[in-house]
């Protein structure tokens, strides 16, 4: 049910994405306003994710996840009634604050999994997110005839149904007995500060930021590149990004758990960073078929990288599971906030520039992952490394 709750939550969010730019324009927004509306979600998620994760360590996963699902329904309703640019921007901020619940869902799934199944569980959460973004925009495009408000209210109804289903079906105890933190009454902010001070966590957060920056830059600029080099229009681009989402979902949902069982999370994370970089450096060159092959390679790399880095972060954080996963989501959100802007500026200088920059960042991500406990892979039963600076 945790995977279903995350999937439906992302589905509702994805439904309105194709219409947001047009709604912003209709309300009189310029390109700057559009960038602000799209960035507001990531910035709010950057702030909220570690706090929600830490609160879930203290009060439990279920109540925090349900609260966030309720907030998603409210944010979509607010989006539908927003009659001005400030109101629309505020609604997206509310959505981002609730979007920090991804970390709670990750922690929930890890709590319910056996120690050796953590990466597989996190991969399933990633697949749920990916499929939500695959099907959500397609549904939104199909419902466009209802108008922006109508589509927003449909998405809000989906979110409300998700909340009701979660209240009935989500397990009441996320952690088996005997696996709860020794202290549940501590200050969540103090827990976050302590988690950030872990030496084992810093290179992983840097790797997440670098790799997400690279991937978000590709997402922001490929429409321009594909249109110029291969004549792709909106329909073709939609199919391309649907294919990228499907590849990522398949890798995270069915492949990553198997390969990490054999090779370990750290090696697979490094492999994922390498594949992501290889796809990016190949993408702006050659004919259309090579571009599509590069997209499949980088989607595979991102599908391998995201759940394995999340697993390594979870192990580094010890009992502050929700808090450290929230910090990981915060690093990802920060990259998604600034990556598209930087990639757009780089594209204006030279179309290949954001992809070459992204490949270099993937190399940095691989180096940071290797630096994390260099010389030894984590194993499912390994004790977390809690080493404050």
UniProtKB/TrEMBL annotation:
InterPro entries: MFS, MFS_dom, MFS_trans_sf, Sugar_transporter_CS, Tet-R_TetA/multi-R_MdtG-like. Coiled coil: none annotated. Belongs to the major facilitator superfamily. TCR/Tet family. This is MFS transporter. PROSITE patterns: MFS, SUGAR_TRANSPORT_1. Its main location: membrane. Residues 1-377 form the Major facilitator superfamily (MFS) profile domain. The keyword Transport applies. GO terms for molecular function: transmembrane transporter activity. GO terms for cellular component: plasma membrane. It comes from the Bacteria. The chain crosses the membrane at residues 32-52, 64-83, 89-109, 121-143, 149-170, 204-225, 237-256, 268-286, 352-370. It is found in: Cell membrane. SUPFAM superfamilies: MFS general substrate transporter. It is a multi-pass membrane protein.
């Amino acid at each position: 049910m945790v995977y279903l709750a995350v999937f439906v939550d992302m589905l509702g969010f994805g439904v309105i994405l194709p219409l947001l730019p047009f709604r912003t324009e209709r309300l009189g927004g310029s390109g700057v306003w559009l960038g602000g509306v799209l960035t507001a979600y990531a910035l709010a998620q950057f702030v909220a994710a570690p706090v929600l994760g830490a609160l879930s360590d203290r009060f439990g996963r279920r109540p925090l996840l349900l609260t966030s699902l309720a907030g998603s329904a409210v944010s979509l309703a607010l989006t539908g009634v927003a009659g001005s640019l400030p109101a629309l921007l505020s609604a997206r901020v509310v959505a981002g604050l609730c979007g920090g619940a991804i970390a709670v869902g990750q922690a929930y799934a890890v709590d319910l999994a056996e120690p050796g199944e953590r990466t597989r569980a996190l991969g399933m959460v990633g697949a749920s997110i990916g499929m939500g973004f695959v099907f959500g925009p397609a549904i939104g495009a199909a419902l466009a005839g209802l108008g922006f408000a109508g589509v927003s209210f449909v998405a809000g109804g989906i979110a409300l149904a998700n909340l009701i289903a979660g209240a009935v079906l989500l397990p009441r105890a996320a952690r088996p007995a005997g696996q709860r933190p020794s202290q549940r009454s501590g200050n969540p902010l103090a827990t976050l500060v302590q988690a950030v001070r872990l030496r084992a966590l810093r290179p992983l957060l840097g790797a997440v930021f670098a790799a997400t920056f690279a991937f978000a830059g590709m997402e922001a600029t490929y429409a321009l590149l594909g249109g110029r080099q291969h004549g792709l229009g909106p329909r073709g681009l939609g199919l391309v990004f649907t294919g990228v989402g499907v590849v990522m979902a398949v890798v995270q949902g069915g492949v990553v758990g198997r390969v990490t069982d054999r090779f370990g999370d750290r090696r697979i994370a490094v492999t994922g960073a390498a594949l992501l970089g290889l796809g990016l450096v190949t993408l702006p060159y050659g004919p259309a078929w090579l571009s599509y092959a590069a997209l499949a390679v980088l989607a595979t790399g991102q599908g391998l990288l995201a759940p394995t880095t999340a697993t390594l972060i979870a192990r580094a954080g010890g009992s502050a599971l929700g808090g450290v996963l929230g910090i990981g989501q915060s690093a990802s959100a920060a990259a998604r906030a600034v990556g598209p802007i930087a990639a757009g500026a780089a594209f204006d200088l030279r179309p290949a520039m954001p992809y070459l920059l992204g490949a270099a960042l993937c190399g940095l991500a691989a180096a940071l992952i290797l630096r994390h406990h260099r010389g030894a892979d984590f194993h499912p039963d390994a004790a977390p490394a809690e080493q404050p600076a």
